[in-house]
């Protein structure tokens, strides 16, 4: 196995261009597990941990550009107030040790349907910045995930960052596991209220081949919410929202849970998170 | 007195600072590494092996297969110890009985080289049909001649007298011990002498087993094990890691270390077998039992048709009944042999018995605790013998008071808070309190320190610490003067650390050794003309803080150190023996008792369960160390939470392979699953057991799973009969 440890981003992109099959590694919380289980034996590894700019975040025109190597622990500590949905999801990742090492970039690269960061990125309308020696492009989160553990990147591209707007309204994240911590999601759901555009963003995790938005549910609820004189939501509205979210999923049975349970639990999580977020919106007005 | 004090664990600091060296940490000159290649099929024959690529890989020293392995003799499981262990020949022929059974062992200079070369070994099999679970063969259930039915009275006439009959069938899952420390072995031959460092619950069992397998005298084999990172039954017998490490060391002439991977742990030792438990209870309207009809079907391995009682999964009956019938049966499946895990017998069967008792409580309109009080057994139910002691009723009282049980609304789904259903459940706990023959050597040094040597093990429960406490009291010194040396077959022999035997065995043995040493030194003193104690009657001499003195004249005396130095004695030693009656023999039934009270909160929309409050009271005679005991209660209840809610080894029914052989998929409880646990002790005097001490290790787990199962049923009105209780089972 060839092991590269580039010091600079251009150097990393050059190596990736030369070795399109190379596996990038940052925190190692996915890649090392696969190596350990002998699921995956890449010929070339590119260790990105020496590249300082991947561990930085800053704002550009009011949006946050968060380097792909920023670990979950820092997202919680440094960005918790502005990206509450992503911070909530980050708190459910693994253990403190895993949150110190694991990165959103790794979650995106692995593109597992169960990755905890995906639902809040979808709900917030994030974009993924990918780069190669050919240049840089932004991919909207809902076009990023293309199949089970597959994403929209070209073989010579690496993930530089994600771009995300600071929350313009309440955000929520809910996850069910087979125990109360250190667990892969049975299913998860992220929700973001966007009062500025009078829309609601959603993200469904671990209940389809890819993380995905619940577009019908978003359209339905956008037509139901009165942003200017917000009243408590009727149960029937929350239920319908939950049903539409559940319908957007196409789960399977596996060792963590049944398809039927996942759909049911999604509907419950969707109506609850909507209720919590809407109540918060009403309180804060 | 040191016994009874919350003495801090003597090796605790070394463990938490990383200074404690576990088996796989210990370096040796010339050490090489072995990795097992496991069978990829669960049943069949090896038809061809290609080891050429592995041989050519870097650093490889040897590849041991059934073609070139040293020949071994069959090791009959029962003759070595109660638990089974690998009783099939390892690397002796082409037969495969279970997935991941070793078919080759690769030895290389480094672990990485061995692992890589192991991945290059190619094996072809002639596949035979594999039985993945007993449900494929229930009709073939058989009785083992070693695990006999228990019959008391006549159950048919018992049911004829019953006003109420309750019947329930529970399905308990396959689970694995999964201790934090992987199974590790280092084998080192010097001529025909073998030393094995082992992560084991029994240095003696390994020595005996290795000697039989390799045709050696036991004296040619030395086994040591300084620290253990958990065993829970999985490290109590001779399994293939020991055999293959020994073979690899023989073939290469080098010291060989073999550390089993986490994925291989599901095949490298036994497990808690899947079982089906059927219970029928007959009772009068007032709740008094008239008949208990109970049978279990438990999986055993494909070749093991004489399983011992310890893997029957059947529990003794904790209640009085004029008629009891309990029949254990087995079905052979293609898995590694099962073995006791955490708490055999009661730790499994009480899930079914206590579920049925709760259903009986509902049917008779009695409070579950009151029903159990009414059926309190004042004698051992299956023999009629009196108990050596029994504090169960005091446990019930104390536990109910601490938990607030009297405020329980008996109606299921009646207690709610913040949208959550609250459930309260309880269970009786009990477990035999026995010890086994053992000996120990106590040595007094001229500086007044004491060394105790005993071939027992500290499996993480605090054996090093309690040996010091027991010895301190017997010899008459403070606990900080005592050091324990254990887990070495060169030391006086002691039983395996299983069956909750250790504390009682240590108490009896070390007390005898310490008393013998004290008496020997007093005899030196009273015969020494220069001693202030010269001429005194030995029985008039007492020892306190290392100073001997006359009972009635405290001023007349001297210290141990003064006596030894004056006499030019560097040390004095004495051997103590412990020869208890056999298990279940004697005039009394020897058991420890307890009760579990659990509160759960269930989200009715999601079916998720949290254990939110827990009270466990145990009665184990004299508590040697309340601090280490409390730790055992916390660990034991945590096991029970896993058993009830999270832990299951998922069997792929098509290939008879375990699908979640790793911590990513096998979920032991984490901190967030375990509430603060209120551990309480009821102490009773028991003149029939050594020093009044009853073992308690397994008792700490027993009762936890059934209390949680009953709490969930109370919360939701849904009685889950197939563990673990996952969220999907609680959605009506």
From TrEMBL, chain A:
SMART domains linked to this entry: CO_deh_flav_C
Domain of life according to the entry: Bacteria
SUPFAM superfamilies in the cross-refs: CO dehydrogenase flavoprotein C-terminal domain-like, FAD-binding/transporter-associated domain-like
A Pfam family assignment: FAD_binding_5
Keywords noted in UniProt: FAD, Flavoprotein, Oxidoreductase
PANTHER family with a match to the protein in the record: XANTHINE DEHYDROGENASE SUBUNIT C-RELATED
Name of this protein: CO/xanthine dehydrogenase FAD-binding subunit
Organism: Herbihabitans rhizosphaerae
Lineage: Bacteria, Bacillati, Actinomycetota, Actinomycetes, Pseudonocardiales
From TrEMBL, chain B:
Protein name, as recorded: Xanthine dehydrogenase molybdenum binding subunit apoprotein
Gene Ontology molecular function terms on file: iron ion binding; oxidoreductase activity
Record carries keyword Oxidoreductase: yes
Superkingdom classification of source: Bacteria
All residue ranges annotated as the Aldehyde oxidase/xanthine dehydrogenase a/b hammerhead domain in the record: 17-129
InterPro entries: Ald_Oxase/Xan_DH_a/b, Ald_Oxase/Xan_DH_a/b_sf, Ald_Oxase/xanthine_DH-like, AldOxase/xan_DH_MoCoBD1, AldOxase/xan_DH_MoCoBD2, AldOxase/xan_DH_Mopterin-bd_sf
Keywords assigned by UniProt, alphabetized: Molybdenum, Oxidoreductase
SMART domains named among the record's database cross-references: Ald_Xan_dh_C
Family matches, as Pfam families: Ald_Xan_dh_C, MoCoBD_1, MoCoBD_2
């Amino acid at each position: 196995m060839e092991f590269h440890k580039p010091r600079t981003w251009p150097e990393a992109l050059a190596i990736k261009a030369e070795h399109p099959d190379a596996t990038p590694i940052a925190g190692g919380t996915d890649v090392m597990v696969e190596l350990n289980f002998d699921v995956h034996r890449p010929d070339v590894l590119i260790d990105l941990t020496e590249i300082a700019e991947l561990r930085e975040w800053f704002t550009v025109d009011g949006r946050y550009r968060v380097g792909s190597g920023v670990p979950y622990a820092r997202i919680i500590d440094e960005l918790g107030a502005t990206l509450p949905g992503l911070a909530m999801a980050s708190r459910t990742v693994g253990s403190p040790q895993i949150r110190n090492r694991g990165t959103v970039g790794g979650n995106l690269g692995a593109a597992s349907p169960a990755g905890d960061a995906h639902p809040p990125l979808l709900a917030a309308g994030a974009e993924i910045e990918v780069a190669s020696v050919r240049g840089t492009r932004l991919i909207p989160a809902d076009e990023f995930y293309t199949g089970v553990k597959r994403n929209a990147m070209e073989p010579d591209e690496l993930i530089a960052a994600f771009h995300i707007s600071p929350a313009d309204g309440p955000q929520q994240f809910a996850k069910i596991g087979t125990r109360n911590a250190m667990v892969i999601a049975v299913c998860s759901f992220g929700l973001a209220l966007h009062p500025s555009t009078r829309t609601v963003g959603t993200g469904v995790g671990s209940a389809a081949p890819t993380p995905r938005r619940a577009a019908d549910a978003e359209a339905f609820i956008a037509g139901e919410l009165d942003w200017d004189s917000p009243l408590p939501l009727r149960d029937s509205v929350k239920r319908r929202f939950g049903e539409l979210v559940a319908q957007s999923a196409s789960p399977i049975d596996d060792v963590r849970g049944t398809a039927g349970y996942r759909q049911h639990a999604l509907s419950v999580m969707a109506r609850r998170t909507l209720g919590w977020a809407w109540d918060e919106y009403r309180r804060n007005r | 007195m040191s016994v009874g004090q919350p003495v801090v664990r003597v090796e605790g600091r070394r463990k938490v600072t990383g200074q404690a060296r576990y088996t796989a940490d210990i370096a040796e000159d010339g050490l090489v590494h072995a990795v097992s290649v496991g069978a990829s099929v669960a049943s069949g024959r090896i038809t061809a092996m290609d080891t050429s690529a592995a041989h050519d890989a870097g650093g490889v020293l040897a590849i041991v297969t059934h073609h070139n392995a040293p020949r071994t003799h069959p090791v009959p499981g029962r003759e070595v110890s109660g638990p089974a262990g690998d009783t099939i020949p390892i690397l002796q022929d082409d037969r495969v009985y279970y997935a991941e059974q070793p078919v080759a062992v690769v030895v290389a200079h480094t672990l990485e080289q061995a692992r890589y070369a192991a991945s290059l070994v190619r094996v072809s099999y002639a596949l035979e049909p594999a039985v993945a679970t007993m449900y494929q063969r229930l009709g073939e259930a058989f009785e083992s001649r070693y695990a006999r039915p228990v019959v008391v009275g006549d159950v048919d006439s018992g049911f004829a007298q019953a006003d109420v009959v309750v019947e329930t069938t529970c399905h308990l899952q396959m689970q694995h011990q999964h201790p934090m420390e992987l199974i590790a072995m280092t084998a080192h031959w010097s001529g025909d002498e073998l030393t094995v460092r082992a992560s084991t619950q029994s240095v003696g069992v390994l020595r005996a087993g290795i000697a039989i397998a390799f045709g050696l005298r036991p004296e040619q084999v030395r086994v040591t094990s300084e620290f253990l990172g958990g065993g829970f039954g999985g490290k109590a017998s001779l399994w293939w890691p020991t055999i293959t490490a020994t073979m690899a060391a023989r073939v290469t002439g080098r010291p060989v270390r073999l550390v089993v991977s986490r994925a291989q742990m599901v095949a490298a030792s036994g497990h808690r077998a899947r079982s089906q438990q059927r219970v029928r209870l007959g009772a009068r309207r007032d709740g008094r039992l008239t008949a208990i009809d109970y049978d279990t079907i438990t999986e055993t391995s494909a070749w093991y048709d004489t399983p011992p009682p310890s893997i029957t999964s059947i529990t003794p009956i904790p209640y009085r009944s004029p008629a009891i019938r309990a029949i254990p049966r087995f079905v052979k499946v293609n898995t590694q042999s099962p073995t006791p895990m955490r708490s055999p017998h009661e730790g499994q069967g009480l899930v079914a018995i206590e579920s049925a008792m709760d259903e009986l409580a509902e049917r008779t309109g009695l409070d579950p605790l009151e029903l159990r009080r009414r059926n309190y057994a004042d004698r051992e139910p299956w023999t009629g013998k009196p108990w050596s002691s029994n504090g169960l009723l005091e446990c019930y009282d104390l536990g109910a008071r601490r938990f607030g049980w009297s405020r329980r609304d008996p109606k299921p789904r009646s207690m709610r808070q913040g949208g959550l259903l609250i459930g309260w459940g309880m269970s009786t706990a009990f477990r035999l309190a026995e010890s086994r023959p053992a000996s120990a050597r106590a040595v007094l040094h001229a500086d007044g320190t004491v060394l105790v040597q005993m071939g027992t093990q500290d499996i993480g429960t605090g054996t090093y610490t309690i040996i010091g406490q027991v010895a301190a009291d017997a010899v008459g010194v403070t606990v900080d003067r005592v050091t324990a040396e254990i887990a070495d077959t060169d030391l006086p022999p002691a039983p395996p650390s299983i069956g909750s035997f250790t504390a009682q065995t240590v108490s009896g043995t070390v007390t005898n050794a310490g008393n013998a040493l004290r008496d020997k030194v007093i005899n030196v003193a009273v015969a020494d003309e220069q001693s202030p104690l010269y001429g005194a009657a030995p029985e008039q001499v007492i020892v306190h803080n290392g100073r001997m003195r006359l009972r009635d004249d405290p001023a007349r005396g001297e210290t141990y150190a003064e006596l030894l130095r004056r006499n030019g004695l560097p040390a004095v030693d004495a051997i103590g023996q412990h020869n208890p009656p056999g298990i279940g023999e004697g005039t009394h039934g020897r058991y420890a008792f307890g009760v579990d009270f659990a509160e759960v909160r269930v989200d009715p929309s999601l079916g998720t369960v949290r254990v939110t409050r827990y009270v466990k009271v145990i009665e184990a005679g004299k508590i040697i160390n309340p601090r280490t005991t409390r730790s055992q209660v916390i660990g034991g209840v945590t096991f029970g939470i896993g058993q009830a809610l999270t832990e299951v080894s998922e069997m792929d029914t098509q290939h008879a392979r375990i699908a979640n052989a790793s911590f990513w998929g096998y979920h032991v409880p984490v901190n967030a699953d375990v509430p603060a646990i209120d551990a309480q002790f009821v102490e009773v005097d028991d003149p029939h057991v050594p020093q009044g001490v009853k073992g308690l290790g397994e008792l700490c787990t027993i009762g936890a799973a059934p209390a949680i199962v009953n709490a969930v049923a109370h919360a939701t009105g849904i009685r889950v009969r197939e563990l673990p209780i996952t969220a999907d089972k609680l959605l009506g």
